[in-house]
UniProtKB/TrEMBL annotation:
Its EC number is 5.4.4.2. This is isochorismate synthase. GO terms for biological process: salicylic acid biosynthetic process. Keywords: Isomerase. GO terms for molecular function: isochorismate synthase activity. Pfam families: Chorismate_bind. It catalyses: chorismate = isochorismate. InterPro entries: ADC_synthase (IPR005801), Chorismate_C (IPR015890), IsoChor_synthase (IPR004561). Belongs to the isochorismate synthase family.
Length: 412
């Protein structure tokens, strides 16, 4: 499905005074967001929208975005990445499950970056003056089992370890889910506010009912520079800083986690190579400290060598071994056979692209999907990379730690 009523529509960007916390400016529950450390984009209203599914979803979205950009007129004296026409989107993890991927050209975008702020409007956009409705905390949240119970998850991990021992499969990422039900519809703005405050190092997002704070940047393209933050290999935090430092050191030496991490870095470097030159891949990962977990992390950087947009680069990268496995085809088959979960848009690319192709796409982790038919209900997701040395009980505990950001945001 595509709506494109944009003939000769004017997109205007204007510098504005500092708007304060971006998430606080979203007028209602249905807004879009991509924020980190106070910078980013919030957006509302819809001037055009694309919904796609299937293996060609990225190619169709990239084509649609080119068409949109060729149709509109732009007046943008600010000229930063994310000014002028910008679309926010979220894509399904899988090729075949029929999940809807979306790309939206909002009517209003409020952005901030490095001390500069701007407002972009598409057409008349009376929505630009909308006064935010009050935001209420979720009430009476209770949890129920999702499609994959904890016991089933441990069994799937054990089966994956056996498969790795008996076949050329080296790594597979298996996920599980948790159902949350509140007494009233949950307002994503509440979740965004909590996530952005507690997880400033993460990219906090909301697109079409998918809300989260991901620590993993699939790709950023800006002024010809391509960057990616690759994560894989995790240890839970204890809350005791001294103990956590010891654990961070053990994570940095853990051969199981280093192996898991190396697969993910390789998959990113290999997928970017055809599109880039001068790639820098640090030999040793650093330890990223988040409030709930610590991860092995590698920041990859390269120079763009072709005209691929950030969305096309995200398409080339997805799914990396941080959310799929190695080799990719065997890992996808193992996920299909062992996971027992409809991932929907969890672990798919989420982010934004502008008319120059610049943009940022994260991997939709540490996230929850609101039920479109009943916004009191959310499905939370978490997955873990399984390699030869994985232990089912430890992986279940790790998945629980990865659910903490969304559980905390829900306040229960
Ligand atoms: C698949 C998830 O995390 C990935 C990213 C970082 C570390 C991971 C790990 O150590 O298993 C996962 O590869 C998730 O949070 O649902």
């Amino acid at each position: 499905m595509s709506t494109l009523p944009l003939t000769a529509t004017l997109v205007r960007t204007r510098a504005v005074p500092d708007p304060g916390p971006l998430v606080g400016r979203l007028p209602g529950a249905g807004g879009l967001a991509w924020v980190r450390r106070g910078d980013g984009l919030v957006a509302w209203g819809e001037a055009a929208r694309l919904e796609v599914s299937g293996p060609d979803r990225f190619a169709e979205a990239a084509r649609w975005w080119r068409e949109v950009c060729a149709t509109i007129l732009v007046d943008d004296p600010v000229g930063l990445p994310g000014t002028g026409a910008v679309a926010l989107g979220s894509f399904a993890f899988g090729d075949d499950d029929g999940t809807r991927s979306v790309l939206v050209l909002p009517r209003v975008v409020l952005g901030r970056r490095g001390g500069r702020a701007w407002l972009t409007t598409v057409g008349d956009a009376p929505e630009a003056d909308a006064v935010p409705e009050p935001v209420a905390a979720p009430v009476g949240v209770v949890y129920g089992e999702g499609a994959v119970s904890p016991v089933r998850y441990e069994e799937a991990v054990a089966e994956a370890v056996r498969l790795i021992a008996a076949s050329p499969l080296e790594k597979v990422v298996l996920a599980r889910d948790l159902l949350a039900v509140a007494e009233q519809p949950v307002d994503p703005r509440w979740l965004l506010g909590r996530l952005a405050t507690r997880y400033p190092a993460c990219w906090t997002f909301a697109v079409d009912g998918l809300v989260g704070a991901t620590p993993e940047l699939l790709v950023r393209l800006e002024r010809g520079l391509v960057t990616s933050r690759v994560l894989a290999g995790t240890i839970r935090r204890t809350g005791d800083d001294d103990r956590d430092l010891v654990l961070a050191a053990s994570l940095a030496r853990s051969s199981k986690d280093l192996e898991e991490h190396e697969y993910a870095v390789r998959s990113v470097a290999d997928a970017l190579a055809p599109h880039c030159t001068g790639m820098n891949v640090p030999e040793t990962p650093f330890v990223l400290h988040l409030p709930n977990v610590m991860h092995l992390a590698t920041d990859v950087a390269a120079v763009a060598a072709d005209r691929s947009s950030s969305l096309e680069l995200a398409a080339a990268l997805h799914p990396t071994a941080a959310v799929c496995g190695t080799p990719r085809d065997l890992a996808l088959a193992a996920i299909d056979r062992l996971e027992g979960l409809d991932r929907g848009r969890y672990a798919g690319p989420v982010g934004w692209v502008d008319a120059t192709g610049a943009g940022e796409w994260g991997i939709a982790l540490r996230s929850a999907a609101l039920d479109p038919d009943d916004p009191r209900r959310l499905t939370l997701y978490a997955g873990c990379g399984i390699v030869a040395g994985s232990d089912p009980e430890a992986e279940l505990a790790e998945s629980q730690a990865k659910l903490v950001p969304m559980r905390d945001a829900l306040g229960a």
